[in-house]
Amino acid sequence: MSGANASPIGRSQQEMNTTSLIEAVTKHFPQAVAASHSYRGDATVIVRAEFLLEVARFLKEDPEMRMSYLMDLTAVDYSAFGKRPAPAFFASSGVAVGPSPEIPDENPWPGPPGETRFAVVYHFFSVTHKHRLRVVVPADEAAAEVDSVASLWPAANWLEREVWDMFGIRFRGHPGLKRILMYEGFEGHPLRKDYPVKKRQPLIGPVN
Amino acid sequence: MNDSFFTSRLDEAIGWARKYSIFQYPFVTACCGMEYMATACSHYDVDRFGAGLPRFSPRQADVLFVVGTISHKMAPVLKRIYEQMADPKWVVAFGVCTCTGGFYDNYATVMGIDTIMPVDVYIPGCPPRPEMVLDGLMKLQNKIQHQRTTGERAAPEPRPEILER
Amino acid sequence: MPIETTDLTPHSHSADLETRDMLLNIGPAHPAMHGIIRIVAKLDGERIEEAEVEIGYLHRGFEKMAETVDYNGVMPYTDRLNYVSPLINNMGYSMAVEKLLGISVPERCHYVRVIMSEISRICDHLTCVGASAMELGAFTVFLYMIKAREYLWELVEKVTGARMTISYCRIGGVKADLTADFPEWCRKAFEETRKVLAESDGLLTRNRIFADRMSGTGVISAEDAMAYGITGPFLRASGVDYDVRKDNPYAVYDRLNFDVPVGTRGDNMDRYLVRMEEMHQSMRIVEEALRQMPPGPVQINPETGHAIPAAEMVDLAKVGNIEAISGDSAVTCPTLEGSGRAQHASIAADEKRVVFPPKEDTYGNIEGLMQQFKLVMYGHGVRPPKGEVYFPVEGANGELGFYVVSDGTANPYRVRVRPPCFAIMSALHKILTGDMIADMIPTFGSVNMIGGELDR
Fold first, then answer.
1. Is B148 exposed, middle or buried (0-12, 13-18, 19+ CB in 10 A)?
2. Using a CB-CB distance cutoff of 8 angstroms, which residues of chain B are in contact with residue C58?
3. Is the pLDDT of residue C7 over 70?
4. Residues with Cβ < 8 Å from B37, sequence gap 6 or more?
5. Dihedral pair phi/psi, residue A44, rounded to 5°
6. Touching partners of C (3+ C-beta pairs < 8 Å)
7. Domains held by chain B: number
8. What is the pLDDT of residue C33?
9. Are A197 and B165 inside 8 Å of each other by CB?
10. What pLDDT, on a 0 to 100 scale, did the predictor assign at position A9?
11. What is the CATH number of the domain that holds B135?
12. Distance CA C2, CA C8 (A)
């Protein structure tokens, strides 16, 4: 029962490190990859939206990559990035106290991917090769639509529904895109930066 | 109120019988459920108060323990369960999320179930320790004892103005 | 998949008997649904043909609230994600932010976090197995397991101060060191837990009714499990040997010897057995960690300094008599026990911009006071560099990942929790298909759906 079951799906000695992962993807899809980095050791590639399905299929089926898991699928709304003020304590009394400097970084992060408002972030993992890859797909606000990878990984079904619910990004080819965490009468997409935290839309009871 | 010796004695007797035979409907949603389980089990036994048998049907229960955060999606379900219960019924708001919404002051949470139904006992805490739950249960029992068979009970304290926004 | 209500086509099972499918709505207010799941099942007699699972009844906006508070302020919200094993969530979040900051905590702190996480994991498995046994009618096992959980919660309370929602970890360390009598109390608690596990094993594993209801039901194959993103005991019961503690080791898991139980059939019985064995392995990890961890803080040398009451220390500091208190430690109230100057070096990273100073320094000298102010003032506080990071830990249900994006200000820009039971629930409609209605209860019990994590 415990430990050493020699199952075919198990630990393997092969492992690609972050640079070789990024290189493999960039070599196969030179036009698809807009940028890449490995901030804090997480291999990340920024892929243009029209190439997403091809890259995803490659990641799943290529024997060097074998990304058996779509671990996570989420989105980030970059519309308020870098715009939040850092208030100074006692600003009204004239005492100007500057905020602490950030912890410095030798290899800083390149910044939000592209100029688009949203970025859809995919985290992949391979059980055979034990490597991880993050794929970031920028999505514009006006045409917030990205291809669905639910045909490749059924895990994407509910994850994409959640991104639709929370951010309003549509997924082309999704079997049934409807709200999952909020209720049907809810208007708006809560995790967007312009949705106020306390704006309630109760089904029954007062708007408290 | 026209109280004869016999009706008030009868009310007391029925109140005594009711308070020691509570059939609770534990409407458990979230983290407070773990402390509810701890209170109901051997260490902090709630059965010695006569309240040890949960009935998972609103038709058969008399105390609705609302345990855990109620979101706006769940609120209509909770209201329906409350309406399906037969009189006499009491409601216990268990945990601060049901009392006032807790620290989830956002788009998804009902800020206190007393906005949608009358509550008899509030047990704050995140989650409340089992001792607090038992104290709340004893307060509820006190309230049940003093309720008349005609259904009259002491009027609940009005919701403080500071909570209205 | 949504079920069309007009699709109740009549079947003809025999020449003169016509049947129709029935739609049964189970939940959200249902005891076995743990209160917050709704399953709409299309039944052909007792057999489930299709099931649609609806979630979201406990959505509390964790990710939105995390953007409104500062980095340490997210800690209580993470407690309430998987509320049966809160220490694992705490640890995952604080390790993610520490990865973003690029700092590392002292070795003893790693050991303390590992010990508390494993105790939390045992609590989670006790609750899961106990609750699912109760739903099958074995109420006694539930009572026994909650009794064992109470011993563990007493242990957790000694160290963290609270039973369940503990907010124990901090960015850059933990709140307080283990108490001096922790190994002794831990030994007693584990003795009781082992007794309970032995009793429950005797009551359940070879019990005819339990075995019949659990074996062969709720089967999922390894390929399906991976395709749906399932990890943790659910996956390991199907035969895939993936555990974040072994394959992506974090903290000090690579120095500890433990086994990871892997099943074969992927049914409910295997999941129950995997969880029971994991509890034994967790106890093994804690005992080994207690032996291996570097020793606690050095005793204050009585010649150079001694312990004085905290109020006296503050009074001396106020009049500027710093030399009199420079080597002393303060006798504080029980809330601050374990987080004094003597223990500070072993429980918190050496990074002034991230960790709070010990109270003796906050009240005793101006540098400590400044450090404290810079961390609590609105708009200041822990300010990681701009960046994004993903950090997975092994939660009780599987891979619990935190994806944190920072824009350099005091509030996180985006905190995403990758919930392990979300993946399992998304596969539930497939697991239930083909089983009978009564098999739904053990299957759903073995999912260990925790609403706080599923709906966040």
1. middle
2. 29-30, 68-69, 71, 74
3. no
4. C127, C131, C146
5. -130, 135
6. A, B
7. 1
8. 57
9. no
10. 35
11. 3.40.50.12280
12. 13
Instruction: Strands of C370-409 (E only): list them.
Output: 387-394, 399-406
Which CATH superfamily hosts domain A14-82+112-208?
A: NADH:ubiquinone oxidoreductase Nqo5 subunit (3.30.460.80)
Interface test with C, best of B27, B35, B39, B41 (most C CBs within 10 A): B41
Q: Is A178 on the interface with B (CB under 8 A)?
A: no
Of B41, B71, B81, the CB nearest to C29: B81
C76 contact partners, CB below 8 Å, separation of at least 6? B103, C165, C167
**Domain CATH for C121:** 1.10.645.10
Its ipTM equals: 0.87
Instruction: Give the CA-trace dihedral at C96, C99, C100, C103, to 10 degrees.
Output: 130
Is C281:C245 a contact under the CB 8 Å cutoff? no
Cβ–Cβ contact C215 with B under 8 A = no
Mutate to test the interface with B, among C25, C36, C87, C167 (most CBs of B within 10 A): C36
Under 8 Å CB pairs connecting chains B and C tally to: 94
Query: Residues B37, B38, B40, B46: what is their CA dihedral angle, to the nearest 10 degrees?
Result: -150
Tell me the shortest Cα–Cα distance from B76 to chain C, in angstroms. Answer: 11
- The pTM of the full predicted model, rounded to 2 decimals, is 0.89
pLDDT digits (tens, 9 = 90+) for A47-64: 988 899 999 999 998 888
Q: Is A207 on the interface with B (CB under 8 A)?
A: no
Burial of C173: CB neighbours in 10 Å, binned 0-12, 13-18, 19+ = buried
At C139-183, the pLDDT tens digits run 999 999 999 999 999 999 988 888 989 999 988 888 888 888 899
To the nearest whole Å, the CA of A166 is away from the closest chain B CA by 12
Q: Which residue in chain C is spatially nearest to B78 when comparing CA positions?
A: C29
Q: In which domain, by residue range, is C328 found?
A: 307-376
